[in-house]
Design brief:
Layout (H helix, E strand, L loop, with lengths): L2 H12 L6 H12 L7 E6 L11 E5 L3 H7 L5 H12 L5 E3 L7 H8 L2 E11 L2 E11 L7 H23 L13 E5 L5 E4 L3 H12 L3 H16 L5 E5 L8 E7 L6 E7 L6 H7 L4 H11 L4 H8 L3 H15 L4 H8 L2
Antiparallel strand pairs: 1-2, 1-5, 3-4, 4-5, 6-7, 6-10, 8-9, 9-10
Helix pairs in contact: 1-2, 1-6, 10-12, 11-12
Length: about 350
């Protein structure tokens, strides 16, 4: 077994669907420690449809709550998205936080007694899949070029392991999840009010994903801050790997005020399709066919609509079923509606 295959296997072993995110983060840290020694780890996953900087699952290990809150301050959301967008566009998408020019994040690390962060953008030919940061204590040896090279080599295996984690059969939770809920994040980036249905979503997040309270609060604050920068709704789709069902979270500014409404509900059908297709590696043409299939079109109708032969449509359907692990049209549609 090659070193790369062994690392991929170990990363897949750490990413256990249904396990709490803190437990998964601790296992990721353990697997990566021999590659790049570190004292703390944080990793956020996303998918190309969401764009750089928009995190759907967050794994934190070894950071204090105070430092975590500072790193995720809502007033840094725009700066953070610009940082990761720049990092993702680099030829080798790795950077050490403390290298000149020093920025806000470096000062925050200093103030909390931390050393350096070595950060890696997870990307491949399809796009952006997340960000991995390893931190060393202030007294530890600084990260060097060899550390950066070794971490960069981890990227493909970690991105592939996350795709396997997300597309593994979901660990089903009892019931069908709470009904749609809404909360409002005020100008001070605190949850100002919520519908009765929103409470169970927050409880499910803590119960199934083991998300610390401070991280949940910071996540909604950052989501609201990012939504204020957009002319339209900001949508993200949280994979089923943690709680057993896909979740859609949509944030949108309320009129001219700085209040942001956040709607949370189970993802299904067309709301799930962009993220679903990203994670399962569905091509643009296969996605078109999947959309027609979901609308109820037969293969002959799809062939006419897309100016393809029925044989070609059949080949694309076979590829769709293989990629998604489904046995046919009904099972594929059901996977979008569970």
């Amino acid at each position: 077994m090659t070193e790369g295959n062994r690392l991929y296997r170990d990363l897949c072993g750490a990413l256990v669907p249904g396990a709490g995110l803190e437990a998964v983060a601790a296992e990721l840290s353990r697997v990566l420690a021999p590659v790049v020694p570190h004292d703390a780890l944080r990793c956020g996953t996303s998918n190309p449809s969401s764009g750089p900087g928009i995190t759907t699952l967050a794994f934190w290990h070894g950071y204090t709550a105070d430092l975590g809150r500072e790193l995720l301050r809502a007033d840094r959301a725009g700066e953070y998205i610009r940082e990761v967008t720049h990092l993702a566009g680099r030829q080798v998408p790795v950077t050490v936080a403390r290298r000149p020019p020093r920025g806000t994040r470096d000062r925050l690390l200093d103030e909390h007694g931390a050393g350096e962060e070595l950060c890696l953008a997870l990307r491949d030919a399809r796009g952006w899949w997340g960000l991995l940061c390893l931190m060393r204590a202030a007294a530890a040896r600084p990260f060097d070029e060899a550390d950066a090279r070794r971490l960069a080599a981890v990227g493909p295996a970690l991105a592939a392991a996350f795709r396997r984690y997300v597309t593994a059969p979901a660990v089903r939770s009892p019931g069908h999840g709470p009904p749609p809920g809404m909360l409002v994040v005020g100008a001070d980036n605190r949850i100002r009010t919520m519908t009765p249905q929103a409470g169970p979503w927050l409880e499910a997040m803590r119960a199934h994903l083991s998300v610390p309270g401070w991280l949940a609060d910071c996540s909604f604050a950052c989501l609201a801050a990012a939504a204020r920068e957009r002319p339209g709704p900001l949508r993200l789709c949280v994979p089923a790997a943690g709680c057993g069902w896909w979740t859609t979270i949509e944030a949108q500014r309320l009129g001219d005020a700085d209040d942001v409404a956040v709607m949370i509900q189970r993802a299904s059908g067309r709301s799930l399709m962009p993220a679903f297709c990203d994670w399962y590696g569905v091509t643009a043409r296969e996605r078109q066919i999947m959309q027609h299939l979901y609308s109820g079109s037969a293969p002959k109708q799809i062939a006419r609509a897309l100016d393809l032969s029925v044989h070609t449509v059949g080949d694309h359907l076979k590829a769709l079923f293989r990629k998604t692990g489904t046995s046919g049209r009904d099972e594929l549609i059901a996977s979008l509606n569970t």
